Batch of 3 targets.
Target 1
Amino acid sequence: MILKGVGASPGIGIGPAFLFDNLKIKVLKKQIGEGEIEQEKRRFVRAVCDAEKQINQLLIEIPDELRRHSGIFKTHLLMLRDPMVYDRTLKLISDERINAEWALSKILDHVRRLFAQIKDQYIRERIEDLEYVVRRIQNLLSGNPSMDFSQLEKPVVLVAHDLSPADTIQMSKGKVLAFVTDVGSRTSHTAILGRSLGLPAVVGTGDAMSSIASGESLIVDGLAGNVIVNPDSRLLKVYRDKQQHYIRYQLEVIQHSNFPAETLDGFRVKIKANIEFLEEIPSVIQHGAEGVGLYRSEYLYLAHRDLPGDEELFHTYKEVAERLSPYPATIRTLDIGGDKFISSVSLGDEINPALGLRAIRLCLKESELFRAQLKAILRASAYGNVKILFPLISGKSEIVEVRRHLEQAKEELRRGGIPFDEGINIGIMIEVPTAVVMADSLAREVDFFSIGTNDLIQYSLAIDRVNEYVAHLYEPLHPGVLRMIQRTVMAAHEAGIEAAMCGEMAGEAMYLPVLLGIGIDELSMNCLAIPKIKRMIRQTRQEDCRSLAQRLLEASTAYEIRKELLEFLVSNFPEDFDSTQGMYPDFAGRDVYPLNS
């Protein structure tokens, strides 16, 4: 039997299944009397305090190699006391005279409904963090002990409906060979930690817990997103060979981390990282990034019920700048609103939030919020190489407005005698079709472009990639998309500025030859993708990629483009694109592309 899921952490894990039922708590509703209300509230408060002690202890014991992820658990600490959960649970106990477990479950259901309306996949999935926090409190209220994976008698493949980051971080690599879950995605914190631990993982299988019996033999293919149950001896041999091949492949690829990303014929590309937490900076350096091409600042706002203060923003940006110096840190201004949630900014309901008040539009409307962030970024620029990136720019008038706010922020700092980089570089994200059409004009107004392919593809093809009915039509290799990328890069070069790319396309090995051929100056991606991308760049010639790109840009269908591109990849990168199996192992554990698709 083969279960299909999402390859969340690359590698091959082989071993017996161990079913971890962490959802066995049955929450029952219980009416309480008037005289029991205060006692029930105290029971809830005590459970929250105990949860805080557990998380603080976990933070003390977190291994050094995972310390960069400690921000996840610090966020969980904040969530324990978030008024939306903490205060409302206490109120519900009083108002409805119900037990703490049931009140907490009702609050979680309410918040789930709020998050279900969010379009952005990454933000929508942050409900998982709240669920982990609530589950921890529920366990304490019910007296359920937490699992100690170090007590496992032999190495196993862990199978669960879901795993919390705390569950994951306590896995001993000697005892847990891989893990499989019913739910989850590549962007969940559990998947991120799995990759950091080097544990193969497949998530989002749907029914692993109900389909697998404890003790059954499993193969977990974190490259292809497959879980094979009770494989025969022939399959076991195939996958043991594949396991050894992947280990050798990883060791060979990682050696390229600190080499320059330069083709055989001398074309140099800057390779940078996309991050959103300070804790990711060691990984940026370890994987050979030449700075940060996209620092997403949204989490600073989403982790708080109230807006973060000026000083908090400044100290965070300052630390990013200092720790990356002399490499640049490109900080994107707030890209939030409409389909995302800030409790302190009151936004009306929008019929189509993806096309509504978000990103730069929200910032220009909420000018105080915008200038506070600009001042914090400017102050940080005195401590390192900082650039500012503005999202969702659709025309020159928005750049004029942005510059007006930036100049006001600079003037306020000058009057206060506060130092900053007077010549700080500013760039815009190219992610709407009008920005592509006007790229020649926009290039004269800024210091660099950064192509945000996620939104650019979505807006250009009129496809909501989280809509299950049309997501399959989301196609980075659409001829129109490639031509827009080419047009943007040409406009930048004609104006004497650089064109970067920070969308998902930048870190996908499959698209690299096209981007090299088009002449992109900089690629910014997930840290894990960097070694493989660098290795491929160093093994190819830009002239060959340029010839390929010219042929692909003349094609009229994505099918033609994909077919010719895959032939080029198999021919030029046989180690990375395995033609015998019709798939390639991607170092970042991304999708698998059949050669006949």
Note: The chain is about 45% helix and 15% strand.
Target 2
Amino acid sequence: MTPLRPAALCAALAAALAVTSCSGSADPASPEAAAAPEITTSVPGPTSGVDSVTWNLPAGEPPSLDPAMSSSDSASTVVATLCEGLFSFGPDYTLEPALATGYEQPDPLTYVISLREDAAFWNGDPVTAQDVVASVERLLDPSVGAAWIGWAARLDGLEATGDHEVTITLTEPDVLVANYFATPAFNVVQASYAEEAGDGFGTARDGVMCTGPYRFESWEQGREITVTRNDDWWNTDAEVRVERLRFTFVTDPYAQAAALTSGDADGQFNVPRAAHAQLAEQGSMLYGRSLAPTFLAVVDQEGPLSDIATRRAIQALIDYDGIVESVYQGAAEPLRALVPPAAWGYAEDDYREAYEALPAPAYDPDLALGLLSESGTAEETVVLAYATFVEEETRIATSLADNAAEVGLHIELMPLTAEQFGAVFSSPEAREGVDLLLSTGYLDFPEPLTYYQYFSTGSFYNFAGYSDEEYDRYISTATAAEDPAERAREVIGAQAIMAEDLITIPIASQYVNAYHDADLTGLVPRQNYLYTPWATGLGGR
């Protein structure tokens, strides 16, 4: 990779990456303000093959390619090209057959899954029902440490009930379960290969053994991962045009922009904001609505955030318009609730009515000042942790701290490295001393219940220990509600409580973005690139 980059791009990056406050609404006429970009819903299909594509992973080198550990952007982007689940998500997130041809639900507690008979692993061995069961059981083994274990809270039984049939039984109805069939929670690996590899499975030494459109070829640690087209893929309807994918791990935003501009990298998801305009002139800069909220999560509700007035003051100190226009350059929308509108996968009119009834987010320092005068904890320091490797979140955190200082609230910033930030989600010790966490997450599929259930009593991700009987009742009823309208009513009830209690403070939902050079086509940016074989549509113009 060449270190050279155009001077104009360097200047733009230097300006955009500066850690400055965006206090007050951005002036739409100012250079920083940006109109919302056009959302890409379709692109021309490829007409020619491509020998090799270099795709950069901006979040860095994956810790593993084991699908059970596929819970980070980097790992998921690669694993999605290699390994498959029982189903895949279509463009509208409907379940489409993959290693399963379909499933039946004879009662609310039972799923009988029919498996494809023509699927094989890369080594030619057929996929069996035992491989499916072993893959799921392996993921559920606490010693593996898979983040996907949460789907199985109501699991009663999992067994091969035929050569090409698997049956899952639950202790209680759970309308979310079927959606996970299309996620890494049900990615199938060859049981014998995984067992023989042991701790080496998913590593540079042993790789993985899956069924997807690309095969694992090599992993040069610290430099690149290479996968090659699986010409024996069961999906003969798909014409995979790119023969080889080479994944690089450039994390520095300047270096990413330089690599994309020079052609050392052909494409990337989550491109540095400051490079968008220039890249749009030389290739395809694409945007899609996402299922990703950026929000503040209360980590400790016993300290300075124990007073609701302080939490409401912090909400009033967020410069929503400035963040959308300046930090995200228009490629985002402010949020009234934790779950973004793009994630309303059903009962959209009901969700929209409830959402629009919530207060519109607005930067209001006078309101914040009044709330702090009523708060019993306004004199205490609020410790806000954030990820330093995400430029947008660095700017948001700094802006909020500056805005708070102007009204006499002290917010102490706690910058976290990628490793430290990851530990926050798994280690209580890593959360010690943190009051508030700035985070961007994403829903795995457009079902609002998936995020709101995380804040029910006892949930793994309910770091603050929030507990509300009415909230829990809404979530429990929604989890068993097959009827979409009924489920929406219950979720909306929980959403209203969360909006009142502010155990989370929503900020914005940024669009999915992706860039590739002018010689390529076929990629429509969607949140589900993390779980679907996104590269199969890519090819030459």
Note: The chain has a mean pLDDT of 92.
Target 3
Amino acid sequence: MTGTLNLPALTTAWGEVRLPGSKSISNRLLLLAALAGGETEILDLLDSDDTRVMLAALQKLGVGVTPSGPDAWRVIGCGGVFGVKEADLFMGNAGTAIRPLTAALAMAGGHYRLSGVARMHQRPIGDLVDGLRQIGADVHYLAAEGFPPLEIFPAPIHLSGPIRLRGDVSSQFLTALLLTLPLTGQEAVVELTTELISKPYVEITLNLMARFGVRVEREGWQRFRIASGQRYCSPGRIHVEGDASSASYFLAAGAIAARGGKRCVRVEGAGRSSIQGDVRFAEALEQLGARITWGENFITAQAPEHSLLKAFDLDLNHIPDAAMTLAVLALFTDGRCLLRNIGSWRVKETDRISAMATELRKFGAVVEEGDDWLAVTCPRRGIDGPRSGIPVMQGPGMQSPPAPGLCRNVEVATYDDHRMAMCFSLVALAGVPVTIRDADCVGKTFPGYFDAFAAITAPVIAIDGPSASGKGTVAMRVAERLGFHYLDSGALYRLVALAAGREGVALDDEAALAALAAGLPARFEGERVWLGEADVTTDIRSEEASGGASRVALLPAVRRALLARQRAWRRFPGLVADGRDMATVVFPGAEVKIFLTATAEARAERRYKQLIAKGMPANIYVLLKDLQERDARDTRRSEAPLRQAEDAVGIDTTPMDIDQAVAAVMDRVSEICAARA
């Protein structure tokens, strides 16, 4: 995904998202591991533009950094002494990389130059440089005073007294000093001359330093002391938590549009035990009326049962990044919303207060702004609010519901700011199409964001039923009419059986079959099915493959292995999925659930005619017996037995041809959409 992205009108959100690693934790851990003695393996490291910048810089400085597995890196620490004493380092727009590295290099006894993109050269670093100069560091500005690019020369470091530092511009300046002062081996004291903003981010720093063996004593949030003689030592192996800032978008989606039954949005990777302050965004959602559930390593969010979210007046100094999500959430509340103490927005990737105000006004919102505050009022007051729970689909009788008061088809400028792109994707949940310009800027922290967003918001029609009930052909044609993607889940099981036969794996070897299913090199191109480089469209329709699929589908490990692959088909503009457990297990929150059935005799006759038409031998009595045995296996299996979901619409296709069955399903889809509207 690059460039402009057109998001369709959306009104529902449900499902599960596994968060990528935290950017704040990832870059701190990379630097700590590099400065420590010993070898550190960092697991679940975020793969993004900002972490790639840090990795590249460390490698250029002579630090041994190598991949050790998926999202895992091995860092051979330099013990605080970089092997390379002269380097030019390009830091992109990564504040979490350039600021601590500036401090580390100022104490490294080398000659270095640090630069970045144009916006980085507009982001202040003067307070950090002033703090470093207080202890003898030789740091020069190469352009505007107080801003990168920088040049650093070797200089002796002396800690004769407290370092006095402002704390009201960016907490990253304090973090940079705290992370690197232990390299001196001397007692170090940092005193803040102003109130510290974004305290939770400093708490992350202190927590991670302690894991590497260095403890910081603090007196409130004004004075920090590092005792002499402390050195960083590798903890061996360490995990990166899921990114709590990224969690805010999905939790917000749940708070807006996860309504009806057990629907919710669940984020995995951050929860009650998280060290990140941004998990407190979920507490803010609770104040707005969202229904929140906490686990040690997960959070779920649901919309209020019968109302809009409540308007709010909040001091958001403690969650400045996640606070941006609240600015967009204001469009879904019942009044004027005030975001206070967000002055740090002005020195981020862009001037976020100005950018947010500009883009919100495009949707018709009334926006007021000050130096460190923003007030947002949605234009649609006194109207029933966003109609969450309505699938937004195109086709006969399925028009997008009106968006009360919000302007449609707005083009959102992102200012090369990843959080602007992610925040404004939420507006589509008001049932209005939205265009995100330069959407690939999400690569800074979350390259797969829009895929993950689609995985909880794209509408799903689940069509289940017994073998030969016509569900595959019907589902494919419904998908074509709607312009949706199509998932033939049965084809996946057929592919597993076919691949097992070709690789000599027994159909009762559950572990081997599950491993085969997890790594299945399958792809679908229109009506063609490929296994690796082989076109197996015809092969998987053989009776042998069909019978094998029925057997492997009984195995719980195989079903679990294919579950994530099936859910990955959910993407914009929507999905029609057919199988035997689409509505009950794979997509239990599907907007529309259909259960197709027919008598065994009618299904046997259909199968018989299909085989004869293909010139294949067939015996209708054998086919009938096979279908009856298959029905028995499917309904009795322990894992996801074949059954009609409680909220599914049943359609008996015994007297119907395919066109009639498709029409019947489309009628039901239209009726369900109309009823919910």
Note: The chain has a mean pLDDT of 91.
